[in-house]
Amino acid sequence: MRILFLNSLYRAWAALFLTGASLWGTLQQAAAQGSTAFESNILVLEHFTNASCAPCAQQNPTFQSLMRNNPGRAVAVRHHVAWPGLDSMYLANPADPTNRVNYYGITGVPALRLGRFALNTTMNQSTLETWHNITPANWVYDLETNLVGAGPDSVQISGTVYSLSTPDSGNRLIMVLAEDSIYYPPPGQPGGGLPGNNGERLFPMVTRRILPDTNGIAVGSGAVPTSFSFKTRLAPRWRLPHLYLTGFVQNSTTKQVHKGFKLRLGLNIHTAVQEASNPTQNAAVQLFPNPAAASTEIRLFGMENYLGNTDRPQIQLLDAAGRRLPALFHWTGETTLRMDLASVPAGLYHLEVLVPGKSAVYSKLLVSKP
Asked: Do 325 and 259 belong to one domain?
């Protein structure tokens, strides 16, 4: 299974590699802010709201507190809608939220959906945990988000998704680019002025764009991996360190959803189908420089509980056929290693990080020789 998986990845990404400088800058920003840059096998809730909706202003603070208290379990993307009044975030992109409104038949806000299930923004911790436990996690998402262009001004999103249990057919991968959070200063201050009239100023995980479009990507039953690659422009007003890609697989007919993911733009993620009692959450590995020639530095994220002791992760460099290569690794800190590539031929490789008792975490490395 591993060899098949690696071969499919190799075909999908043989012509792609991460831009080291911009990626490393994004990683530094993520570390400095202390925010969660990776979340896998999570609930991706769709929250319909409006900046002129009084009940929304009353319920949103409590609901947002619930989301903040459950990293690695749930995230909510906010679709700002046309009613009951003015909402400048809706006006910035009316088409995408309206598509989801029509898909679910939303008639009032606030409204909360987990696919075919209509939930309530007043739900408590116990209810959220119940939904997390019963929502299936049948799909594997292996994604790269590569920042490109001046600024950068675009993001290249490439990936492969498949299902190990082939639950049904007619599924689509829905991905939402969201900005977290958008703050409106009081009137009279630079950039001041409210987006509506309900008094709210801070808006988390605001939908900026549904990618690659509102139809999503057809992935069928998942028995055969689906690979994709596309580029989308980033609007100048969007703040790059606050942009996240969230996604989930949804059956287009039944509206049933499966657990999904959240990651900061410029990073990549592999979500394994994991044991509910033993998940690896918020874990990732990144490389700099990449491409590399003589050596590269490896930085581990979200594995702090397994570093600095005798149960350090095992690092392996694999070729497209799943064969382990003779690369030398040297720990340079509790979360960093240096890999010597002198004996590694030029090519595209797969780096595997094995945490004892947990699911593997992956990254890609392009080795180029002068």
From this structure: no
The CATH number linked to 352 is 2.60.40.10
Global confidence as pTM: 0.69
Q: For residue 94, how far is the Cα from the chain centroid?
A: 23
Sign for the CA dihedral angle at 279, 261, 35, 183 comes to negative
Same domain, residue pair 222 and 331: no
From first to last of its 370 residues, what are the pLDDT tens digits of the chain? 333 333 333 333 333 323 333 333 333 333 333 346 778 889 999 999 999 999 999 999 999 999 999 988 999 999 999 999 999 999 999 999 999 999 999 999 999 999 999 999 999 999 999 999 999 988 889 898 989 998 899 999 999 998 877 778 999 999 999 999 999 988 777 767 889 999 999 999 999 999 999 999 999 999 889 999 999 999 999 999 999 999 999 999 999 999 999 998 988 877 764 433 333 444 567 777 777 888 888 877 666 655 555 567 888 888 766 678 877 788 888 788 898 988 888 887 878 787 665 656 666 666 777 6
3-state secondary structure of 66: helix
Give yes or no: residues 214 and 172 share one domain: yes
Alpha carbon distance 290, 223 (integer Å): 32
Which two tokens mark 176? 């939402």
Whose tokens are 């609007």? That residue is 235
Looking at 205, 236, 271, which one is the last position of a domain? 271
Expressed as residue numbers, the domain containing 355 is 284-367
**Cβ neighbours of 47 (radius 10 Å):** 25
* 118 assigned to some structural domain: yes
Q: Report the domain count for the chain.
A: 2
CB neighbours (10 Å) of residue 193? 11
The Cα–Cα gap between 31 and 276 comes to 27
6 is a domain residue: no
Is 15 part of any domain? Answer: no
Instruction: Kindly give the pairing relationship between strand 284-288 and strand 206-211.
Output: unpaired
Together in a domain, 242 and 290: no
Distance between CA atoms of 216 and 295, rounded to whole angstroms?
A: 38
The closest alpha carbon to 139, from 246, 248, 46, belongs to 248
Q: Are 256 and 131 in contact (CB under 8 A)?
A: no
